[in-house]
Design brief:
The complex is a heterodimer of chains A (about 325) and B (about 280). By secondary structure, chain A is of the alpha/beta class. Chain A has a domain of about 100 residues. Chain A has 9 helices and 7 strands, in the order H-E-E-E-E-E-E-E-H-H-H-H-H-H-H-H. A 7-stranded mixed β-barrel of chain A has the order 1-4-3-2-6-5-7. In chain A, helix 4 crosses helix 5 and helix 6 packs across helix 7. Chain B has one domain. Helices cover about 80% and strands about 0% of the residues of chain B. Chain B is built from 11 helices and no strands. In chain B, helix 6 packs antiparallel against helix 8 and helix 10 runs antiparallel to helix 11. The chains are: A alpha/beta (about 325), B mainly alpha (about 280). At the A-B interface, helix 1 of A face helix 4, helix 8, helix 9 and helix 10 of B.
């Protein structure tokens, strides 16, 4: 083989290798953009696409299955996104699958995530529109996080002040927190609470028994609940009580009338109760009577010794 | 035999226009040089489409320029890929983004580093060799001898070389990119457990046609510029043997500079068309 031929073979190998590498590179880049696979179109409408661009990926179950083909503004609040998705996905994506705009990692490119639908819904067809879900807006999230941070800052500052005050004051709370004996006491208390709770449990069991007995008509409560005769007696008693109550009510009404008369009328009783002059006069009279009564034995004694009445008193003694 | 009237017919004595006479001599020389280059380029485009086609010489030059440059290009690209990865790793590791290393290095190599490094290496190797070869042919009057023997020296020497550089540099760049990515993979593999499939998946996932096509297209211009400068400097070599060295030297310098200028223009154009 002459030198020229060898050179040509080498050159051919060199050129073919370079061309093959070029084609391979184009193929890998192209397959990444779904250029060499069968695809179908899907649409989704969003209010905002958050910076989504043509060529961004479409994912289903975390796998890249297509790209964004076109983004067009339909009206002031609707943006329609056209997706080119691998044809195999026709067997998987359902009518109620939803499209959301997400991000590849924290800082990566925007993409559309298609979620799995439910089995009841039918499979999606070429050119159909997917339901879209509003995505989490990073700006919105950061704004909320900023607010939360500010609040946490205030709370932590307050907490620092409070803990500082507790430490400086050495007050009750400090003692509660630092005194180990309190902890011991607390442990005892917890033990007692445990015993109490056991007792409560026991009581609740007992109550349960009572209630079940009552349900079965056993015991006094059971009789009260289940005994129909007694219920009738009780009903009768209640009726009687009601009748008595009504009578009392009537009597009370009559008493009221009497009392009103007493209050308003000019009778003796009213005078006695309401007229303070009469009351005072009566009081004086009573005092006088009392005084007279005290003097009465002396008078009686004097009468006994009086010659006019002496005979009478002797006759009375003889009768005795 | 086709004669270039600019070279064969003696220039008629003409009085200099006034605006030329007021220009500084260096600037006049510069304008003269630019004019010569433009004429040279126009002649190339005229000759390249006109038969006869020196295919044998084109293949020979392609072998010399392409195949024979491959070891140097491959070695340089391998080292660049390896070093770029090793140097980038600490910075990415600081941000916890080591997993982005293949994507980042891949884009760097395909878009910029690969084409420019390969073009610079070729400007050094091929530019100087063409400049020196043509310069020595010029000063030893081999070119004049070719004309006398009935061969078109421009077509045989210049056109074949420029065509070869224009088509071989892109192939060298593609191979250089591939070798640089292998170098990068080895560097990544040294520090973390990654399969070659995952590495190349990550590289191509983050690469788009908008990264690859403009970078590939500009390599044709790199090749054309390297061949053109080498041939022009060698073909117009003067001052005897001393001029050979000067031709080789200025070929390398100007070709390297042109690579950067073309790169800058390519970036501006791709930016203008929204590829970046």
């Amino acid at each position: 083989m002459n030198i020229e031929t060898i050179k040509n073979i080498r050159l051919g190998f060199f050129v073919l290798t370079g061309t093959a590498l070029l084609i391979l590179a184009l193929y890998f880049i192209g397959s990444n953009s779904n250029l060499f696979s069968k695809t179908f179109k899907l649409y989704a409408k969003f209010e905002t696409v958050n910076g989504l661009k043509k060529g961004n990926n479409v994912r289903y179950g975390g796998i890249d299955v297509g790209i964004i083909k076109n983004i067009e503004i339909v009206n002031d609040t609707t943006i329609r996104v056209e997706m080119s998705v691998e044809a195999d996905l026709k067997k998987v994506i359902r009518n109620n699958s939803a499209a959301t705009i997400g991000t590849d990692g924290l800082m990566g490119n925007k993409l559309i995530n298609i979620s799995a639908g439910t089995a009841e819904a039918g499979l999606i067809k070429d050119g159909e529109e997917l339901e879209s879900l509003a995505s989490l807006n990073t700006d919105e999230m950061l704004r909320t996080l900023d607010k939360t941070n500010r609040n946490i800052l205030v709370i932590s500052a307050n907490l620092r002040d409070i803990t500082q005050k507790i430490t400086d004051s050495r007050g009750t709370l400090y003692t509660v927190l630092m005194d180990t004996t309190i902890a011991e006491g607390l442990r005892h208390t917890l033990g007692n609470i445990d015993v109490v709770s056991n007792n409560i449990l026991q009581i609740s069991d007992d109550i349960n028994d009572v209630v079940s007995e009552a349900k079965n008509g056993k015991g006094l409560l059971g009789t009260l609940v289940k005994d129909t005769v007694m219920a009738e007696d009780l009903s009768k008693a209640v009726k009687e009580v009601r009748t008595a109550g009504e009578q009392i009510n009537t009597s009370a009404g009559e008493l009221k009338v009497i009392l009103e008369k007493v209050n308003n009328g000019g009778g003796t009783l009213s005078t006695l109760i309401n007229d303070t002059t009469s009351a005072n006069s009566l009081k004086r009279s009573l005092i006088n009577i009392d005084a007279s009564a005290k003097k009465l034995p002396d008078l009686m004694e004097a009468l006994k010794h009086n010659f006019l009445f002496k005979g009478y008193f002797k006759k009375q003694e003889k009768k005795k | 035999m086709e004669n270039n009237p600019a070279e064969t017919t003696p220039a008629k004595k003409q009085s200099e226009p006034i605006w030329v006479s007021v220009l500084p001599e260096e600037f006049r020389d510069f304008l003269n040089e630019v004019g010569e280059i433009v004429r040279f380029v126009m002649r190339f485009f005229r000759e390249v489409f006109m038969p006869p086609y020196e295919l044998k010489e084109i293949f020979h030059q392609s072998y010399e320029i392409g195949y024979r440059s491959l070891p140097l290009v491959a070695l340089t690209a391998f080292i660049i890929g390896l070093v770029l990865t090793l140097q980038s790793r600490p910075t990415l590791a600081r941000f916890g983004a080591e997993s982005w290393l293949p994507a980042m290095v891949g884009i760097s190599i395909i878009r910029e580093i690969g084409p420019v490094i390969v073009a610079l290496v070729c400007a050094g190797k091929i530019g100087s060799s063409i400049g020196a070869e043509l310069g020595s042919m010029k000063v030893t009057e081999q070119i004049d001898a070719m004309e006398v023997s009935g061969t078109n020296p421009f077509k045989y020497i210049v056109v074949s070389r420029i065509i070869s550089t224009t088509f071989m540099i892109p192939i060298l760049v593609i191979m250089g990119d591939a070798v640089a990515l292998i170098g990068s993979f080895i560097a990544v593999k040294l520090t973390s457990a990654i399969s070659i499939t995952l590495f190349f998946n990550q590289v191509f996932e983050s690469t788009d046609f908008s990264d690859f096509i403009p970078a590939f297209v500009k390599t044709f211009f790199f090749g054309f510029a390297i061949g053109l400068v080498g041939c022009y400097k060698g073909y117009n070599s003067k001052k005897g043997t001393e001029g050979v060295g000067e031709s080789a030297n200025s070929s390398v310098v100007i070709a390297s500079l042109l690579v950067f200028i073309i790169d800058l223009i390519a970036v501006q154009i791709t930016q203008f068309f929204g590829y970046l």
